[in-house]
Design a protein that fits this description.
mainly alpha; 17 helices; 0% strand; single chain; 475 residues
Amino acid sequence: MPELSRRRRLLVLAICCTSLLMVSLDNTILNVALPSMQRDLHTTVPGLQWTIDAYTLVLASLLMLAGSTADRLGRRRVFQAGLVLFTAGSVLCSLAPGLGWLVVFRMVQAVGGSMLNPVAMSIITNTFTDPRERARAIGVWGGVVGISMAAGPVIGGALVETTGWRAIFWINLPVGLAALVMTARYVPESRAPKPRRPDPVGQVLMIVLLGSLTYGIIEGSAAGWASPLILGCFAAAGCALAGLVAYERRRAEPLIEPRLFRSAPFSGATVVAVSAFAALGGFLFLNTLYLQNDRGLSALDAGLYMLPMAVMCLVFAPLSGRLVGARGPRLPLVLAGAAMTASGLLVAASGTGTSAGSSDLLLFSAYVLFGIGFGLVNAPITNTAVSGLPRSRAGVAAAVASTSRQVGSSLGVAVIGATVAAGMRETGWWIVTGCGAAVLVVGTITTGRWAARTAERAAARTGLPSEQSRIPVTR
């Protein structure tokens, strides 16, 4: 891709951030609308879980395919296709006559979403080649998540109160169309110098692994954890995982490159992403049900209650990018893990998840801490995942990082939703706390000098002819 002017690079960043805003806004708005959807569609807690997890499962399953396809066919072309599918899927969701159709149309959305965020991150990575400039751009990217978290609950609450839950999907139409026009005009086409071949076997194994694992967790409470169906799901997930590892290690151009995991920062970023987004998915799911069902707040009031978390995320996400550029990823990851752990402890230790008379001050403190932690965690995840790797693998590396996020969110909703369905809501808060602690511990271990050296060695094993083709490690 040719070197672009600073103004053009900023335009590309803005367009890529628009796609992230659309996807993130859709997720945060949906969480606020869950109780309204539950009443209107006459569904259960597992039904609500599927409106979220059907999306995240398809998204997680296809992200790596989308990243490698973009590297091969052209990142702008795949990005545009994703915008069209996501926007069309949103319109279909607003017209869904029942829960089953809504779940199907959410899967259509997910197919489009899989072509957006990882491809956009790949575009950003190849547009901003300077490590510090790239870290700041990723910080802006992370700040968009804060914007969506701030605006989503309030916009979603207002739409649900005035028009109904179907209106939450309408907002994607103008945003998607505007992004489509801007992409055609300003985003240059780019491809990997040596694109990889498709890996259909690996793709099928990935779908079986994620689908069977999540289905078993969500339906375990209703069907019985020892039932043949649930045990069969877990067995299928185990076999798919074993088959995926064995098959990908022998394949010359695998869907998931095992060599990437030789890098301690890359592996650590994967674990941190799963943990952080499991905490987020569980935190939002529990809070939405608690505020509206237990405390009797309206959708709009519930959105306003969670505003402190969103504002903190908005403030600290760009700061995290600057910290990564100046000091490396360790400091923001340590602070993020500590804040998320403290937030979970505040709620878990007090029993807020079950008591309708809980202190507003306690909730406010927990929301502020979680917003700070989540605002700090995104930029170091992405920066660590791509640091020290070849630019030709940027699409795959970004896709793995994005897949880890979606897998974490899906598992968080599945596991914590299962505790809610089993009447053990307080256990869900302790799980959120444990996820925050995992961010702290793993982030600390995998962002030191030893870990950075493993990234250098992993990059050296890729077989690329030139050191200039690698993204420098940001320590």
